[in-house]
Write a structure and sequence with these properties.
The protein has two helices and 14 strands, in the order H-H-E-E-E-E-E-E-E-E-E-E-E-E-E-E. With about 230 residues, the protein is mainly β. The longest helix is centred in the N-terminal third of the chain and has 11 residues.
Length: about 230
């Protein structure tokens, strides 16, 4: 997906440059990051009974109303659009109790960015999320990346004491890369992990909320998403 001003920039710059390569180089230097707007895409809820959705301008809040987990063949809540091809997808994500005062109290309660194969009979997805890892460890909060192939999940949790992170998920062909940094910062991105995952060109891309808590009451939990950016072909 190219920004709509790309053709105009090419026309303007071409007359001022000696070659096509010069034009491309100038465009890459001058073109700002693609502006993201929720209204530019069609959104759907997967497992809609699991969570409520509130969109306020360019800020999204997902609130848990039924306990459910993303693990192996189990599925939690996902708010997504359909995306084709490579992408560079990022957002500031805060996973907390509904009051926003602390991380969720139960282990394995996360929210963040996800890319999922919608056509497979088994679960195939990648995600990078923030929230509560193992609540018997200190600190309890941190971030996680997860790779699920044919309903078998492999994940790593880093409990750094924060339930708010800038998260980034990048696709280049079948290479998926997971990044994080301090929330709402201009720090360099920290590459957490990269993996080859054989997925179709068209994926469900969006945001996830889940908890492994299976108690009798719904966990007090929400995911707040802001500063979303998407760059794609």
């Amino acid at each position: 997906m190219k920004p709509p001003i790309l053709s105009l920039l090419i026309l303007i710059f071409f007359t001022a440059c000696d070659s096509k390569d010069d034009v491309i180089e100038m465009i890459e230097e001058e073109l700002p990051n693609q502006t993201f707007s929720f209204s530019d895409y069609n959104w759907s809820s997967f497992n809609a009974s699991v969570f409520d959705v509130k969109l306020d301008g360019e800020e999204l809040t997902l609130t848990l109303n039924q306990n459910a987990a993303w693990f192996n063949a189990e599925t939690g809540g996902m708010y997504f659009m359909t995306h084709s091809g490579d992408f560079d997808f990022s957002a500031t994500v805060v996973t907390s109790n509904v009051a926003g005062t602390q991380a969720p109290v139960e282990s394995y309660s996360f929210g963040g960015l996800v890319a999922r194969d919608p056509g497979s009979a088994s679960e195939n997805y990648v995600h990078v999320v923030t929230g509560t890892g193992v609540n018997t460890q200190s600190p309890i909060s941190g971030y996680e990346y997860k790779i699920t192939r044919d309903s078998q999940s492999d994940y790593t949790i880093t409990q750094d004491g924060s339930h708010a992170h800038d998260l980034r998920l990048v696709r280049e062909g079948n290479l998926f890369s997971f990044y994080q940094r301090t929330a709402e910062s201009e720090e360099n991105w920290n590459l957490i992990h990269s993996t080859e995952q054989n997925m179709p060109t068209e994926l469900q891309l969006g945001f996830t909320i889940y908890t492994a808590f299976d108690g009798p009451e719904t966990l007090d939990m929400q995911v707040h998403i802001s500063h979303v950016k998407l760059q794609s072909e």
